[in-house]
């Protein structure tokens, strides 16, 4: 019995020792975990810029994306999510909606909010000012010549500085005389766009723009007609033209003057100059006199012109093409039927064709033999 009691006492002592040892082990393990937690490696936030700028009219998600662009948090090979708060510089309160002004930024690791980084933020007022395009101007070049569209042309923005300049010259055909549009455009980082349109005039070779050659005085059946016509044209031009007029303005003044002739069917002379003189002095005539009078005044004014004749049909018709504004255009001062009115002043090929097609009585009204015309009329506007 006494032996049994001694064994029981020894067993209790062992159990107590084991329990004490267990407690010590647990304490040691807890201490180890605590020390690891205290001394554990922490994520490092990187990529934070010292100062950022956004605009007040940016969408909230756009602002957020801009603030977090390139910002990361990592601990060795392990990455962590990063977020950012916009803070008031006055009291440090979180700002949900920004207005123009200065703010603080607090970046933090989502898994460990004590891991932070700071930055500064400027919120600018909305930018609605487009870039300024400078140096774009109208240019003139000869057929088959070369042209520099970008020379001396710049695009600058009040915020972005120099911005990319776009040039659309796709409408220009340097192989054909005419007036063509070139569009310059530029956009800034905020999407504000500016554009400037200029005109490139492609001129024919000098030999192409010469006015019709003067016929020798006294030729044909009208002796001395050249001198009389020259004097008459000089008198008329002195009355209807003024200093500083462009060729277009001169051509229109001549057009309006010839339109004063009253349409009367006549028997034409064999010399075009006589027809011009008769139409301008008598104030009467048909398309022959209108065309001849136009030719005489245009030539005297130094405006290149060429007479066209209707092709096909049962009736003749004569009118001019003139070289104005860098291209050849139709010019017909002769009045038309009141049923089919038209003011044929500097019309394009498409416009006279459309008019001809509208005439059920004379669908060939302005149709001519293109193979006999040495010049190409501007096709369309």
From TrEMBL:
Superkingdom assignment: Bacteria
Record region (Disordered): 202-225
Domain Transglutaminase-like: 279-335
InterPro entries: Cry22Aa_Ig-like (IPR032179), Ig-like_fold (IPR013783), Papain-like_cys_pep_sf (IPR038765), Transglutaminase-like (IPR002931)
Entry protein name: Transglutaminase domain-containing protein
Record organism: Candidatus Fimenecus excrementigallinarum
């Amino acid at each position: 019995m006494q032996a049994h009691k001694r064994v029981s006492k020894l067993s209790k002592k062992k159990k107590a020792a084991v329990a004490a040892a267990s407690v010590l082990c647990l304490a040691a393990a807890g201490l180890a975990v605590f020390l690891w937690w205290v001394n554990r490696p922490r994520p490092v936030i990187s990529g934070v810029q010292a100062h950022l700028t956004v605009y007040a009219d940016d969408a909230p998600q756009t602002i957020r994306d801009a603030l977090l662009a390139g910002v990361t948090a990592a601990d060795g090979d392990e990455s962590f999510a990063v977020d950012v708060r916009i803070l008031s510089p006055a009291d440090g309160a979180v700002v949900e909606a920004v207005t123009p002004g200065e703010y603080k930024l607090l970046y933090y690791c989502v898994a460990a909010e004590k891991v932070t980084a700071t930055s500064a933020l400027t919120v600018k007022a909305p930018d609605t000012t487009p870039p300024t395009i400078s140096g774009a101007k109208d240019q003139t070049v000869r057929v088959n010549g070369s042209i520099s569209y970008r020379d001396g042309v710049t695009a600058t923005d009040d915020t972005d500085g120099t911005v990319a300049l776009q040039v659309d010259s796709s409408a220009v055909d340097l192989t054909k005389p005419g007036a063509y549009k070139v569009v310059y455009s530029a956009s800034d980082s905020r999407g504000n766009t500016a554009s400037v349109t200029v005109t490139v005039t492609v001129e024919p070779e000098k030999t192409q723009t010469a006015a019709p050659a003067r016929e020798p005085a006294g030729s044909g059946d009208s002796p001395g007609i050249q001198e009389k016509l020259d004097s008459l044209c000089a008198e008329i031009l002195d009355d209807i033209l003024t200093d500083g007029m462009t060729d277009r303005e001169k051509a229109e003044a001549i057009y309006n003057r010839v339109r004063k002739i009253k349409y009367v069917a006549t028997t034409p002379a064999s010399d075009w100059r006589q027809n011009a003189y008769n139409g301008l002095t008598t104030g009467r005539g048909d398309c022959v006199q209108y065309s001849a009078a136009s030719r005489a005044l245009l030539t005297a004014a130094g405006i290149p012109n060429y007479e066209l004749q209707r092709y096909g049909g049962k009736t003749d018709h004569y009118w001019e093409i003139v070289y104005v504004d860098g291209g050849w255009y139709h010019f017909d001062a002769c009045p038309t039927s009141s049923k089919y009115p038209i003011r044929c002043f500097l019309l394009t090929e498409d416009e006279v064709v459309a008019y001809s097609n509208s005439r059920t009585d004379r669908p060939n009204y302005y149709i001519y033999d293109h193979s006999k015309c040495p010049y190409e009329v501007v096709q369309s506007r």
